[in-house]
Specification:
Layout (H helix, E strand, L loop, with lengths): L8 E5 L3 H9 L6 E6 L9 E6 L2 E7 L11 E6 L2 H12 L4 E2 L4 E3 L5 E6 L1 H6 L4 H11 L7 H8 L3
Helix pairs in contact: 4-5
């Protein structure tokens, strides 16, 4: 775990927490498994501490009592369309599902926002009409298409 941080986000899983953590750290640079706690060496992990893109997380295999919902998501700021496409495809593979406006749900039921750096830049422009055109274009998208956002921003 990132020793400098007093905070970490805990994600509750039924029993797939270690598998999910290993999948998540495979997706982003500066990610790694830190610690795995198994009450019994032959049992599934109870707690997995990991770093995801430099941010500390943990998973708890706590059983079927709680489920994820879109009120909590992990938001990833991507550099460009290539990174956006790659991360989007990996997260919706094998049972994940796309959502509207950069949102998706992965195969474990966790919600993500895959946000290209261009999106907040265009939406926060001082040109309010261009920002509104960008917003309107975004509302019609699942995965964000940067070229389409820029076209909308430019009134094309």
């Amino acid at each position: 775990m990132n020793e400098k941080s007093k905070l970490r986000t805990c994600l509750w899983f039924d029993n797939q927490g270690e598998e999910a953590a290993r999948f998540y750290v495979s997706l982003l640079p500066d990610s790694r498994i830190e610690k795995v706690y198994r009450p019994d060496p032959d049992s599934p992990a109870l707690v997995v501490e990991f770093t995801l893109a430099g941010a500390p997380y943990m998973v708890l295999n706590g059983g079927p009592h709680f489920k994820f919902n879109p009120a909590v998501s992990i938001s990833v700021l991507t550099r460009d369309q290539e990174e956006t496409d790659q991360l989007w495809a990996a997260l919706i593979a094998d049972g994940g599902s796309p959502g509207q406006c950069a949102w998706l749900t992965d195969k474990y039921g966790l919600s993500w926002q895959i946000v290209p750096e261009a999106l907040p830049r265009l939406l926060s422009s001082d040109d309010k009409a261009a920002a509104q055109r960008t917003h309107n274009a975004m509302m019609k998208m699942d995965k964000i298409d940067i070229a389409a956002l820029e076209s909308a921003f430019n009134g094309e």
